[in-house]
Design a protein that fits this description.
7 helices; eight-stranded mixed beta sheet; alpha/beta
């Protein structure tokens, strides 16, 4: 994958109030015990927010097992969920039974509005912040992170129609409405639906290591040939931001 497209600051102000620091850094070393990426499923999840990143992650982990990563989906009780448009999605694990995570992907959807008002769920999100090295969100998944306090004084983006809602949940968030995704080291947020695919491709390049970055598009092509009638509709970031890609723990 090429370097992120668009403008982004290389330094951010250190927040005055910190949530617990992740226990360990994200590793890029191959492993016989895969490092785990989990996509959270819940009733009302937006289908593409979950399935888009799943397609990218599953293609990478399935075709390149030597990179040492695995991806799965989890729900609260391990049972299927009914997504926003009625698609039923199955989970590999219940949250309590999921393996230790290196990366959490939190999709958006109408179901996030219920979850961001659920104190027990927000406490669970904060607990993940304390143990999961890299937290990511797609679309309105960022609203739940904001409600849990994860985005305090940090740059972030979300679905274009939810920018004001994000500001309302936490006025300290440095909202980036023009960015497809924002990489702030140990936390990545992306805009809605197809932007989650762009974020997932960036995530593959990050986890596979910088030396793999130019090869990522060949692994999972997203741009049709220039002569193809759909070439202008390909999923390529038009504007993205990496504020501090080397920071994997809260400072």
């Amino acid at each position: 994958m090429n370097s992120p497209v668009g403008e982004g600051s290389s330094h951010r102000k250190t927040p005055t109030t910190l949530l617990p620091r992740p226990a360990e850094n994200v590793t890029r070393e191959p492993s016989t015990s895969p490092h785990h990426i989990a996509i959270l499923l819940f009733d009302g999840v937006e289908e593409l927010d979950a399935v888009g990143p799943w397609e990218v992650m599953a293609h990478w982990t399935g075709n390149h097992p030597d990179d040492g990563w695995a991806v799965s989906c989890m729900s609260q009780d391990g049972l299927p969920v009914t997504a926003s448009k009625g698609l039923v999605l199955g989970a590999h694990h219940a949250i309590a039974d999921a393996p230790p995570l290196q990366v959490l992907i939190y999709p958006g959807g109408d179901g996030t509005r219920r979850l961001l008002r659920d104190p027990k769920h927000l406490e669970w999100v904060r607990a993940q912040r304390a143990t999961v090295p890299l937290m990511t969100s797609v679309c309105t998944g960022a609203l739940v992170y904001a409600a849990a306090g994860l985005l305090r004084e940090r740059p972030a983006t979300t679905y274009w129609a939810a920018m004001d809602e994000l500001r309302g949940l936490d006025p300290t968030v440095q909202v980036r409405p023009a960015d497809r995704w924002v990489d702030d080291g140990d936390l990545i947020t992306s805009a809605g639906v197809s932007a989650g695919i762009d974020m997932a491709l960036h995530l593959v390049a990050r986890l596979a290591g910088p030396e793999q970055r130019p090869a990522s598009p060949a692994r999972h092509p997203v741009r049709p040939p220039a002569t193809h009638p759909l070439s202008k509709m390909s999923s390529v970031p038009s504007h993205a931001s990496t504020t501090n890609p080397q920071r994997t723990g809260r400072r």
